[in-house]
Amino acid sequence: MKKPLGVLAEFSSSATLMYAAENLRDNGYKKFDCHSPFPIHGMDAAMGMKRSHLGFIIAFFAILGGLIGFGLQSWSHSIAYPIIISGKPYFAWQSYIIITFELFVLFAAFAAVFGMFKLNRLPMFHHPVFYSDRFSPKVTNDGFYVSIEANDPKFEPDSTADFLKSIGGSNVEILEEDA
What we know:
The chain is α+β, with helices and mostly antiparallel strands.
């Protein structure tokens, strides 16, 4: 018995793909993705995607890194090892700026990389669209596709395939794996 993993439909252009994304969003589909060989301006809004939280994650960790860098230097120079070097006061904050900036950037970079991995659910070693013979050779060249995952609340294999055909999808196929 074969278990359905999703439905894949091909569209003729970026405009029809945008139209399909708007229709899927307006009809209550949540777990779908649009695949094209190049970025399409406005596709995020057409799919109903919210603004990414990655910027807030990066800002939080950048500030945290800066505070850690400044705090560690302040503590070590003023409290742990209070030694007067070259006549500087114990709290010579001007000399702390370089390390503070470096840790600010370091924490921001790590937050960007690991935050992006988490928010994009990476690494994803396999996706149901790779079961399609038409998808792989065309999507990076001249193919425009919509895939709807089986865990979408509105997913029903036959009715979802019919809906994709009604909004202009061609070569609609139900993606399945052996259960």
